[in-house]
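Hi Y.,

Following your request, here is the sequence exactly as I used it, all 293 residues.
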Amino acid sequence: MERGTNSGMTEFELHGLSGPQELHLFYFAFFTLFYLSIVLGNFLIVLTVISDPVLHMPMYLLLSNLSLIDMCLSTFATPKMIVDFLTEHKTISFEGCMAQIFFQHVFAGGEMMLLLAMAYNRYVPIYRPLHYVAIMSVHKCTGLVVGSWVIGILHSESQLVFTVNLPFCGPNKLDSFFCDLSLVVKLACTDTYVLQILMLLDSGLISMSSFVLLLISYSVILVSMQHHSSAGMAKAWATLTAHVTVVILFFGPCIFIYAWPFGNFPADKLRPIFYIVFIPLLNPLIYALRNKK
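Below is the corresponding structure, written out as tokens. Let me know if you'd prefer a different format.
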């Protein structure tokens, strides 16, 4: 990625979580522990699925890829954030900033599509139980996984193609601990109204449509489970409640920020923490470790 010819910006200053040095040391220890837990937990899930032939099934293939995306989603910015807690001047190069924007949207967009694939994998055995093996074959499941990555890359490129050539010649301070697209475009030395509308149509549309489809699929599954035993209904309700909680935490802040793309909110600084710290740690607990196998 090369800097646009009209941009004189060489680096951005990151102003994330502020406070005295003692508080920064606490942040360093806190987020280091979280990051190591995310990497270790998700890596063990991927390793377990790969090494155990019993788990070479569509469900676990999707779960392992979710863990892989969660590791990537946490890694693209968290290590730098942790190191920055020990430095006085927190900066990132223009190229590094564009790279963070690219990878953020690749992994976030890919995870949205993968969550839809997982919901589809739960829907098929309920409404087409006799055809599940034919419908959700390993070959088709692999296609869904590859498709989620491709859509994530295309989504990210559609965001970055306009941003990388914006002229940046004024303030370079970002009120965040990494390069968030919605904050970066506001620093451009030009009118970004049209670009923010495009962001709304792109990220907002994919987030809202995925969120609605997931809620519909969970509702359909719960309705179908009403005809089963009370024990089965209770188990399904407990499982889907946990899944819906993760979905709301993942999509809620994203939908909120793109519903009001021109405003500044105090929660904007904390929103990215959900995506790169808490969600990657919560996903393996909800989707994988509660699974008996």
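The chain has one domain: 12-163+175-288.

Thanks again,
Q.
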